[in-house]
Amino acid sequence: MRNAKDFFTPLAVGAPAPLREIPARPSRAIHFFDPSNAKMAAKIPAMAGQVDVLLGNLEDAVKADNKEAARQGLVDIGRATDFGPTQLWTRLNALDSPWFLDDVTTLVAEIGDKLDVVMVPKVQGAEDIHYVDRLLAQLEAKAGLQRPILVHAILETARGMANVEEICGASPRMQGISLGPADLAADRRMKTTRVGGGHPGYLVRQDPPRGADGTSQIDADRSTYQQDLWHYTIARMVDACAMHGIYAYYGPFGDITDVVACEDQFRNAFLLGCVGTWTLHPKQIEIAKRVFSPSVEDIAHAYQVKEAMGDGTGAVMVDGKMEDDASLKQCLVMVELAEQLAAIDPDLRSAYAEARAASTAIDAPDAQEK
Ligand SMILES: CC(C)(COP(=O)(O)OP(=O)(O)OC[C@H]1O[C@@H](n2cnc3c(N)ncnc32)[C@H](O)[C@@H]1OP(=O)(O)O)[C@@H](O)C(=O)NCCC(=O)NCCSC(=O)C[C@](C)(O)C(=O)O
Ligand SMILES: [Mg+2]
């Protein structure tokens, strides 16, 4: 690991200076498309401005025979499209694949000025990020790029999971981490066959009632509660990202038809601290945008607490609940996110503005200094 003094020094002569802070650009939906699929690719230019991130996927889900067509397809889309406020990302092939080197050298040279983030799959440890970091610096210098391309790691191996904190802090380029539930499940030898989401077998069961003779009635009807297979992983990923000032994302939800469970999984991730998710099909985009935008009610409450808390210290009562410095900080997380989203989304801008106006108009009659 580089020492603190040279952490922000470019890794190649002529490469752009690393960023000191990762920009908090809205990335509620990272929308995946296969640039070698002509029908899908044709839809992408019209999606610019409608989705926070468009990601040209080169790795899994692209047939081996189509890898070069996907790379070239992404170059063509990147060159021809005005993305407006939408970011352009890519998922590169894995570091040990026959395609990674050509992916990265071609994309940086051809559309490096358009690419915001490269996603690196199956990251095992900081050494993978160090390799990508240096290579990107060399390629950026060669291409004369003015701003650094950021790196996003996918958490999809047990070793990557064990090293998640060092991965997050491995380079100033680290923008974030996504959960890769399918590869991670396989690598961990989990007994699931799905791409993300829950499993009905992973549950807890209510204790058996006692019979008149005091024995346990194990055959009685008992409630079961399905548990979240991904809770530990997402929570640890969120902590590692927050500790290093980067962003955590849920990954894919493969059951495209089950929009209800998809929404639940996205919301769990949002509540736990993720800023966005992947969308694999157009029908998941609306869900992601809605779930990863704070509700108008929460924003109204957040502004109300902000107003009531004055200089931000002390304790007050708002709507019968105690609010203090720490609850204000939570509200400010929401307000900050709302302001970022309002800057790019006109519908949210007016909804949040109304929430703010309504909350500041409230005289907070039961708000009082303690
Ligand atoms: C699921 C699939 C096969 C269903 O594709 P389909 O054509 O059967 O669906 P459809 O409902 O019939 O499609 C309706 C229309 O939408 C279009 N369409 C469909 N999808 C998209 C899209 N994404 N973007 C833009 N347009 C899309 C499609 O072309 C069609 O257009 P049409 O009306 O003109 O005929 C298809 O949606 C797809 O290939 N999605 C992307 C899959 C993908 O990227 N997977 C990799 C990420 S997950 C992963 O890798 C795991 C991980 C992290 O590595 C790990 O956990 O380890
Ligand atoms: Mg994977």
Structure description:
With 370 residues, the protein is α/β, with parallel strands linked by helices. It folds into 2 domains: 29-203 and 224-291, Alpha-Beta Barrel (TIM Barrel), CATH 3.20.20; 296-361, no CATH class. The chain has helices at residues 38-47, 67-80, 100-111, 126-143, 158-162, 164-168, 181-188, 231-243, 259-272, 282-291, 296-308, 325-344, 346-361, and strands at 29-33, 53-57, 87-91, 115-120, 150-155, 174-179, 203-205, 224-226, 247-249, 277-279, 315-318, 321-324. The strands form 3 sheets. An 8-stranded parallel sheet has the order 9-6-5-4-3-2-1-10. Strands 7-8 form a two-stranded antiparallel sheet. A two-stranded antiparallel sheet has the order 11-12. Strand 11 and strand 12 (321-324) form a beta hairpin. Helix 9 (259-272) packs parallel to helix 10, helix 11 (296-308) crosses helix 12 (325-344) and helix 12 runs antiparallel to helix 13. It is globular. Residues 364-370 have low confidence and may be disordered. It binds Citramalyl-CoA (CQM) and magnesium ion (MG).
List its traits.
370 residues, alpha/beta, TIM Barrel, 8-stranded parallel β-sheet, two-stranded antiparallel ribbon, disordered C terminus, binds Citramalyl-CoA, binds magnesium ion
Brief sketch in words of this structure:
43% of the residues lie in helices and 14% in strands. It contains 13 helices and 12 strands. Magnesium ion binds next to helix 7.
